[in-house]
């Protein structure tokens, strides 16, 4: 059963606090309750910082992942549960904002990017890594090579390639999973 948002957000504090404790114990339904109670407002906070809904939703998603992984670190003596949640989403939104601004695609020409194919060509023809990389879709392969060979962060790649940060993260995560399967 989905929780009904209260018109008085402070009235939600006991529910959110108890749900965080249940998250720390590994209860997935508790995370869903927090989501039902707070996600819309968390997206709103992130939108005010990022000014883009797609990035705000990404920041909120990342924040919920962090809540799930870090619920044990919540300490009620240091502040309210809701303040803890909003600090997480705010910090994540600020990180995304910093990463998105690091490279403005209007100022960066695609020619500034190293060519991923050149790094691939430096690998021996018989290399298992080269063969597995060549099997990947070009976008995933390029993102992985630019990140792991040339040292670009996800945010830098998103800015330089003009792609959403979530897409870059997805390409790299899925590409690495495919590489691991191919190499395994």
TrEMBL record:
Signal peptide: none annotated. The keyword Magnesium does not apply. Residues 39-102 form the RNA polymerase sigma-70 region domain. Residues 128-179 form the RNA polymerase sigma factor 70 region 4 type domain. InterPro entries: RNA_pol_sigma-70-like, RNA_pol_sigma-70_dom, RNA_pol_sigma70_r2, RNA_pol_sigma70_r4_t2, RNA_pol_sigma_r2, RNA_pol_sigma_r3/r4-like, WH-like_DNA-bd_sf. PANTHER family: RNA POLYMERASE ECF-TYPE SIGMA FACTO, RNA POLYMERASE SIGMA FACTOR SIGZ. Belongs to the sigma-70 factor family. ECF subfamily. This is Sigma-70 family RNA polymerase sigma factor. It comes from Reyranella aquatilis. The lineage of its organism: Bacteria, Pseudomonadati, Pseudomonadota, Alphaproteobacteria, Hyphomicrobiales.
